[in-house]
Amino acid sequence: MAIFFPAFENIQRLTTPPTEGELFLLSQLGESLDDTYEVFFNPFLDGDRPDVIVLKKGCGAAIIEVKDWNLVHYRIDRNNKWRYGDAHKMSPQQQAFRYKSNFFNLHLPVLGLKKIINRHFYGVITPYVYFHNATKAELAKVYEPAIRELTASRNALNRDRANVTRSTYEEEFERLSRHLQNMDRDLNISWARDRLPAKIRKLSTIKPNNLFTDDIYEEFKRRLAPPRHVLRQGKPVRFDTKQHALTISAPGLSKIKGVAGCGKTSILAQRAINARARHGEEVLILSFNITLRHFIRDTISLQQGKGADNGFGVTHFHAFIDSSLDEVGIDWNERPDLDRHNVQGMDVLARALASGPVRKFKTILIDEAQDFHPEWIKLIHDKFLDETDGEMVLFADQNQNIYKRDGSLREPPMARGFGRWKKLTKSYRCGLDTRLVELFKRFQAQYLASTNPDAEIFDSAPAQASMSLDLLSYESYGASYDAKQVCRRIRDYIKQRSLPPNDVSIICSEVDYLIPINEELMSEEKTKVMFETKAELDALSPLLTEKEGQELIERLRRCKKMIFAQNSGLIKLSTTHSFKGHESETIFCILTPDDTATMAYTGITRAQKNLVIFDVEGGRYESFFQTHIASPGGATSPLTYRLPERG
Fold this sequence. Notes:
42% of the residues lie in helices and 18% in strands. Residues 407-414, 461-468 and 631-647 have low confidence and may be disordered. Strand 5 (74-76) and strand 6 form a beta hairpin. Helix 5 (136-159) packs antiparallel against helix 6. The chain is built from 24 helices and 24 strands. The strands form five sheets. A seven-stranded parallel sheet has the order 18-19-17-20-21-16-24, with helices on both faces. It has a six-stranded mixed sheet with strand order 1-2-3-4-8-9, with helices on both faces. Strands 12-11-13-14-10-15 form a six-stranded parallel sheet. By secondary structure, the protein is an alpha/beta fold.
């Protein structure tokens, strides 16, 4: 049986399940192809999501687009354009060819380079379209009117040849012939349901192709491997006893804190689901970080097994307050400054909100509460929580207080009535016996324990920590930062470890360190960034004053943060600030000379499995990382590199 990615049983449990046609095709491929074939369903490819890709080492790849269309409602015009009523539809074959073209031009640059040298490389990928609700005869019938019309036009052109110039004749004849050839090609790559067994048998006898070398195959595998979040879809989240108790929704005030990866977001999502089921009203979920909006929604969707509907209001604090001021009709010019978070500023804001009715919520959940000023939390409690049986829960991690908010979240007025902290010390992001957790725990003890006495410390199993073979590495980039050299090392790790793009994130506290990294990466693949690119900077700088340019850049960053998606299928680059609350299977963390211990801790704890740290030579954490990052297999010598000089 063919090998499926994700596993066939997981495919049927995905948040977006396969269509009837996709599931039928997958089952037929599984039954008819042996285990030398690999079948990828809906892989993430730089924003592309082809339905099915079949891969065979040493032979080639097939892209199969699946359509469950009833062809009675479609027609094809003489220009090979599909129409549904009066509306144009992209040709399914054109869509399949676009996916193929993107492999050469975007997803696998190595293929594009080889194609330039040898045009036969274009043949290592073959596109197909499977029409699940059509027979071969019905498919041919859709094309028949257009083919007949084109053939008649070409015959008429031949009869009238003497009355047109040679160039006009040749141009028109070539155009008509090209349309006929394209239609014939499209029919040949189309699979109807009654011919599916024969088409798959042909696919099962694909011949070896010496152009499809092992290095191309391995690069295909890296690109197509399903990211971690897809492998998890459809699987119920297993909470331990302590976590499960915290998912139970009930009226009252409470607060939960824990180490990075302890499951706070999963607990928050399940509590939101349970609250929605309990009272049937909208659940308000607030964060400070703009980028967490999609991540929280994705987590809710994952745990529900379906999309998070409008029963969950997920937004960030400033946007929520702005929308609330909209509701009560406060003009933009009359609005108080939200950053005046002191008592006087909050009093002004409270009076503004009192000018009209505001929505009340039976459940309010605040994620990353350490990012909130205490006065903000009091305002939310006083103005927006249902007075009779409201439920409000704070989720926090003191060690990630990178904005240096006031106090330990114990001081009035914020925490009055919220009770004792419910503490979580086990990290499920990495597992208790990984070298990562042991590293996080030691970093906490050395740099954060004295300044955050209330912060939770990781549970770990140090006796087993050296057994993990996951990637953990520390490198010095020298006395000065060289983005090209750092990027070269990142590429080496990605290639050597066959890391899927969607599972790779590059973070740093300074945008200026990330922009040149992004420029280097963009020469080979698309990326997802939450800051301005060099091209955008170059376009803005000559047109605006310094102040105007900075304001526009801030708007640009805000917009990118709003649309940021954790599972975009792309390598992600982000500031540590914007990535706080997120996680990634592989983190490349670039430290700067000015990074505080809290900033460094926040950066490294984004990693679920693999962590590579790039640090300045002689930096304040160099000795720690050289001492505590051992080489794979448990060797005692530190795993540390000095990047080579330029040239």
